[in-house]
Structures are given as C-alpha cells and as structure tokens.
Amino acid sequence: MRKNHIYLTTLLFIISLFFSSCASMKGYFNTFYNAEQYFIKAEKIRMEAQGDKIPNSALDNYQKVIEKSQIVLNNNLEFKFRSKALLLITQSYYYRNELQDAMETLSIIREEFPNDFLDYEFWGAMIKWKQGKVQPAINDLNTLVDKDLDLNTKAKIYKSIAEIYVEQKMEYESMDFLEKAAENITDPLEKGLIYYRISEISFERKEYDRALSAYQQVIKNSQTEKHIQESHLRTVQIYRLQENLDKATDSIKNMLIDDRYQSIFGDLELELIKLYNQQDMYKEANNRLESLPQDYPRTKISAEAYYMLGNIEINEKWDLDTALQYFGMVQKEYSQSRFVKAAALRTKEINVYNSLVDQYNEFIGMNTLVDSLGISTLNIKNEDDFANILYGIAELESFHFSRIDSGLIYLDQLIEYAPKSILYTKGLYAKSIILDQLDRETESRLIKNQIISDFSQTDYAQAIVKSDSSYKMSNELSLDKLIEAENKWQKDPVLAMENYLEIVNSDTISEISAKAAFFLAYQYDYFWVKPDSALKYYKWLIKYHDRSDQAKESIKRIALLNSVLTDTLSN
C-alpha cells in the first residue's frame, strides 16, 4: 500500500511538471507570435509610407518586436525559433537605425547558425550602407544576387540596391533595379508598392511611357485603394500631357459616371477642365470650373479651382479686384493646398502692381508742366525714382501677368525719360527679351548691340554674349588685336603700333585697352622720344581708366614730362 502511494505521488509530480513545462512553452510561443505580428504590422506601415523617414508608429512596433523576442530568448536558450527571433531583432534594430545593436545581433546569428549565411550577408551589406560604406554595400549585394536564390529573395536584393542608388541621386540606375524587383517578387502587396514607386519617380522625371506602364501595374497589383485611384488619375494626366486628348477625355467621362472612382471625381473634373483649355474650349472649361467650389466645398479641389479662377481674371478679363478675391479664398478653402503659396504670391504681385500704378499717376501729376498754349511736357527731376516705378510695372505686366505689349509701353518710357538712371541698362535688356518673344529680331539685335557697345562691363552684356555666339564683346576684339600686335612687334614695330592704336581708338572700357594705351605712351616716351604723343596717351589713360595702375604711373610721367617741356621752352 505504501509503495502504491509513493508511486502515485511521483507520477502526479511528473505529470504536473510536464504540464507546467507545456504551459511555459505555450507562453513563449505566444510571446514570439506577438513579436511576429508586431513585425508584420511595422513592415506594412513602413512600406506604405514610401518615404525617407520611417513613421513613429512603425518604429514603436519594431521596438515591441525587440522586447518580445528578447523575452523569449532570455528565458529559453533552446527556443525552437531562436534564429528567426534573432533575425527579427536584427531587422528591427536596423530600421530603428540602432546599427551597432543590429551588428552585434547579426554576429550572434553568424556564430550560432553558420548555415544562415544569406541573412548574415544581406543584412551585413545593408548595415554597411547605413554606415556610409556605399560602394562596399553595393558590391556585396551584387555578389549575393548572382547566387541561386528564390524569386522573392532576389527581388528583395534588387529593391535594396535600387534604394541605395536613389539615395545617391542615381535615379536612372535605381529604376532598372526597381523594375527587376517588381518582375521577380510574388507578393501582390509589395509588387504594387514597388510599381507605385517606379511610376511616381518616372512621372516626376517626365518619362511618361515608363510611368504609364508602371501605373497600370499598380492598378493590377496594388492592395492600397489610394494608390489605385491615384494611378487612374495619373493615367489620364499622362494621356493629356502626351496630347492623346480624345483618349484622356473618354477615360475621364467614363470614370465620372462610375461610383468606384467617386473619391477622385473632383480631380477628374479638374483634369477635364485642363483638357478643355488645351483644346481652346474656354467656355466649357470656365462653366465647369465655376461650379467646382460649390460641388466640392472646403477641399483641395475648391482651393485649386479658386486659384485657376483668379488667373482667368488676370489673363482673360484683367479684373485684378476679382482676382484678389479668388486668390484670398484658396487658403480659406483648404489650408494644406499646394496652391496656397502661389495664391499668396499672386496676391502680393497684384498689391505691389496697384501701389506702383498709384505712384506712377502721382509722379506724372507732379512732374507734368503745361505751357501757355496748353501743351503738356514731362519734366523728370529724379530719374532713378521714375525708373524704379516704370521698371516695376513693366516687369509685372510683361513677365508676371503676360501683358507684353503693355509692359513695353512702360519700358519705352524708362528708356526715353530716364537714360541716366541705374535701371537704364536693365530696361534695355528687358526690352530686348520681350522683342525676342514677339519675333522682332531686328529691333532686339539693335538694342543688344547697344548694350555690348556702351555697357560692356555689365552682366547684361555678358549674358547676351554667352547666349548667342554671334555677338562679341569689345574686349574680345581688343584681345585679338593685342595678340596680333605683340606678334608683329619683333618683326615690324611700325605695323604693331598701328594695331595698338586701333585698340585705343575702338575700346575705352576694357583692361586690354588700358594696356595698349600705356604701351603706346611708354614707346613714345622712352624710345620714339615724342613727348607730345606720350602725353596724349598718358592723359587718355587718366580719362578712361583713372583707377588703374597704368593711370597712377601716367600721373607721375605727365608731371615729369610737363616739367621737362616747360624747362625746354624757357631755355
């Protein structure tokens, strides 16, 4: 009886220990399962963010992955999924940019699980990249992708190489690897996300055929409704930009009667308006545009509509007061609109323009004289003040409000009434640009030649010469003559002197002309012994290059020569 009791007690203890162990193991597995779920959640948030910065919600989930996995590993050294837990920790540290911890965990994987070389080599390369070792990281990944790998692993490596190239601003190279990643990956979610990345980059770079193909793949594969709808919208935008207008119009009209696209109805309406404008169907465009603020109030659609309406008031109706009202509505409708800054700039331009026009009218009133016969004349006393007003109005009219003819009127007044103002050359240059736009090349060329001839040291003269090789600066011509004169000097000094004289007679501005004049003065002074001729060129230097080193020497020689001539005449 005693033996039976002992046996029963021992059996109950073993059974209790067994169930306790099972419960403990079940707890570990539950904890690890939670870690895996947090990792899946973090990855989904990170991939959908599609940005350089990982969202805080994803970072928090990665931290939970680390904590849950460490609990399991610390309490069960023989845990069945130890290598998997270590890899989750490595990845989570990596995405949290805790690279030293990631590398230490990866070293444990290498030591304990040498057969998992693929994980070690891949994440080792990724850590190198984040540590700034870009080329070694690319080399390691390229070596890895050549091995016998499954499609998803190849896709992961291709995508990583693409990310490195994007960071290095090597978008052309990155696109090839992104496309390889998209072609190889089997997971529809990630395939859709990669194609969305390809499409957005291609669209920004105006590679519309590539973008169109990628957007169609997004529509086919993506599990993100927002990306699908954006891809439909981008598709019709590309049709419009490629001037496939009929296809764009038909696509928009078909989507506008399909409730599946209700979330982008407003964007489609705006696209249709742009299509109408592109086909000179302004009445249809304006009618549709005016209804948008009522149909989509307090949205990005109404904000953009008001911005477009404001520009119509400027470009077509020249009603600046109504334009101001429309631009003022943009931020009120949708403060996050990308047109808020543009509307604020338009408002500032209109207010500055109105102020300048008031100043102009006041200035004209104060500086107009009427003689006994009733004839009015404009008597400008302060040319700089008048030029500031005139140029400000002309610039806004011509280059901001697309009223070129009106802008020319004010520039002509500046050129006529303020020739000594600091803005005179700028006014000439602005007029030449406008004349080019109007295809009045002969008039433009005359003005440009005037700028090069009279104002060769200005940025405007330099800009003209750089943009058109048919124009040549006077100092370039002088340089050619100087080289020619120097080459002749040893063989025929008389002919060489003629070249120096040509430079001085045709160029009073460049440093080359100063060198030529000083050379002439020096030769006449010391070798030809013609003091009158030497004085002539020394004085020329003081007149045209008074701040030059040659002028300083000229002053000394003039004083000496005058003294010698005076003594000679006295004797």
Q: How would the blueprint of this fold be written?
A:
Layout: H1 2-49, H2 56-75, H3 82-95, H4 99-112, H5 117-130, H6 134-145, H7 151-167, H8 171-184, H9 188-204, H10 208-221, H11 225-241, H12 245-256, H13 265-278, H14 282-295, H15 300-317, H16 320-333, H17 340-367, E1 368-370, E2 376-378, H18 383-400, H19 404-417, H20 424-437, H21 441-454, H22 459-467, H23 474-489, H24 493-506, H25 511-527, H26 531-544, H27 549-570
Antiparallel strand pairs: 1-2
Helix pairs in contact: 1-2, 2-3, 3-4, 3-5, 4-5, 5-6, 6-7, 7-8, 8-9, 9-10, 10-11, 11-12, 11-13, 12-13, 13-14, 14-15, 15-16, 16-17, 17-18, 18-19, 18-20, 19-20, 20-21, 23-24, 23-25, 24-25, 25-26, 26-27
Feature tags:
mainly alpha, two-stranded antiparallel sheet, 27 helices, flat
**CATH H-level superfamily of the domain at 187-280:** Tetratricopeptide repeat domain
| Category from helices, strands and their pairing | mainly alpha
Distance between the termini: 161 Å
Query: What is the topology, as strand order, of the major beta sheet?
Result: 1-2
Q: Which of globular, elongated, flat, extended, rod-shaped describes the shape? A: flat
What is the fold-level CATH name, i.e. the topology of the domain at 187-280? Answer: Serine Threonine Protein Phosphatase 5, Tetratricopeptide repeat
Low-confidence stretches: 11-25
Outline the biggest β-sheet.
2 strands, antiparallel
Taken as a percent bin, the fraction of beta residues is under 5%
CATH class bucket of the domain at 187-280? Mainly Alpha
Helical content, roughly?
over 70%
Total count of helical runs of at least 4 residues: 27
